[in-house]
Design brief:
It contains 14 helices and 15 strands. It is of the alpha/beta class and 413 residues long. Strand 12 and strand 13 form a beta hairpin. The longest helix is centred in the last third of the chain and has 26 residues. The N and C termini lie far apart (54 Å).
Length: 413
């Protein structure tokens, strides 16, 4: 059961220039969660955000903070409300003429009467939390894009806000940088416990770190709920969302995330083809602990990542999609396939892995020339229909696993 909302909009309508931008909007944002507001450009996201921070007032309806209408607040209460909110700008909005320390200190200098020593203490605490201590005296132009984002986050957090607003935090970034930015937001939100509100039009990115998702389209809320609830929400917007997941892969494994994988399964099979057959193929690196002892943790993780990428590349070329089940296990779904066809595809994969894959993995992770070790890769297949629970078919495939390839000294298939 959900607690009372931290921020709530009730039947909010806003008209600008003769147009209705927000049309009877009702939504809830809960304390300590990551809530993402999604919508295409021009659908009212920014206007909605301005209502939350008090830059705009509704023509109709009510906005409540902890159950109290903000338009009924006296000046002291209003100042307390706005002081609890911080903002991380889309383009960081850092001042190039100021150092990292000076950029982070700016909100405290402008909005508080704290002494120099207390400001320095608070600034350094945030700088250390965001791992920027080594660049304190540098200027933004001397930093990488990722570090600049961390500086902007440290500045947004230096006033100890209860609520942090992120306006299109990943716009214009490539996949790896987007993942890094979102990981950063998720990490510090969990660490510091603030309520995060993200505005985005890039659904795949924010889907994986959000507790709640709110979708606004043509000024109206068409969905609000958990990411899992969104997976089963029948609307054309969700179909566009599913398609936009196609190009998103999890940076750490080279595979779809588990949630992405589940959405793909539901979209490709269970929602639209309720009785089609499919194959689940599971893969495992056996004796992983022994491999770790020989290679070390870091290189072992690189081997796992490279194998995941190889699985995804091979089976993706025939319409499959994959995820990582655990530290040493993967699963691939082959839609619209049966055991006979899957066995043929698996044989091609094994031949390719023995001839090229294992050696390529060794080269990718830059294994030392004198490395001497071996490990087995096992696989299992199971057939199901789209009416079946994917977890039961994966479990059946796991029970069928047998060795398909061996990585030996010297490094060859």
């Amino acid at each position: 059961m959900e607690n009372n909302a931290l921020i709530e909009m009730k039947d909010v309508t806003k008209r600008l220039g003769g147009r209705t931008i927000l049309d009877h909007v009702s939504l809830k944002i809960y304390q300590g969660q990551v809530t993402t507001i999604i919508g295409k450009s021009g659908t009212g996201k920014s206007v909605l955000l301005k209502h939350i921070i008090g830059l705009l007032r509704p023509d109709e309806g009510t906005i409540l903070f902890n159950g109290k209408p903000i338009d009924k607040m006296i000046r002291r209460e209003w100042d307390q409300y706005t002081s609890r909110i911080s903002y991380m700008f889309q383009n960081n909005a850092l001042f190039d003429s100021l150092t990292v320390f000076e950029n982070v200190a700016l909100p405290l200098q402008q909005t508080t009467r704290l002494g120099k020593r207390e400001i320095e203490r608070r600034v350094m605490a945030r700088i250390e939390q965001t791992e920027l201590a080594e660049v304190t005296r540098r200027h933004p132009s001397e930093l990488s894009g990722g570090m600049q984002k961390r500086v902007a986050l440290a500045r947004a957090l230096v006033t100890d806000p209860e609520i942090v607003l992120f306006d299109e935090p990943t716009t214009g970034q490539d996949v790896i940088r987007r993942n890094a930015i979102l990981s950063m937001i998720a990490q510090y939100q969990k660490k510091l416990g603030f309520t995060a509100i993200l505005i985005s039009h890039e659904i795949p990115d924010v889907f994986f770190i959000s507790n709640r998702i709110i979708i606004i389209d043509d000024g109206q809320i068409i969905f609000q709920g958990t990411p899992e609830e969104l997976e089963n929400f029948d609307h054309p917007f969700v179909d566009e969302f599913i398609q936009s997941l196609e190009g998103l892969q999890e940076h750490l494994t080279g595979l779809h995330s588990k949630r992405n994988f589940k959405v793909r399964y539901q979209s490709t099979l269970s929602r639209k083809h309720p009785h089609e057959k499919f194959i689940a193929a599971t893969f495992s690196i056996d004796d992983l602990d022994v491999l770790g002892q020989n290679l070390g943790h870091r290189m072992t993780q690189q081997v796992i990542k490279a194998l995941g990428e190889y699985i995804n590349k091979h089976f993706g070329s025939v319409g499959g999609f994959s995820t990582r089940l655990g530290r040493d296990r993967f699963v691939t779904v082959l839609p619209f396939s049966d055991i006979a066809e899957a066995e043929h595809i698996l044989k091609d994969f094994v031949d390719d892995l023995r001839e090229h894959g294992l050696a390529a993995i060794g080269q990718d992770v830059q294994m030392p020339a004198d490395s001497c070790f071996e490990f087995n890769i096992s696989a299992g297949l199971a057939e199901g229909t789209s009416a079946d629970e994917i977890e039961s078919i994966i479990a059946s495939a796991e029970s069928q696993r047998k060795t398909i390839a061996q990585f030996q000294c010297p490094m060859r298939g």
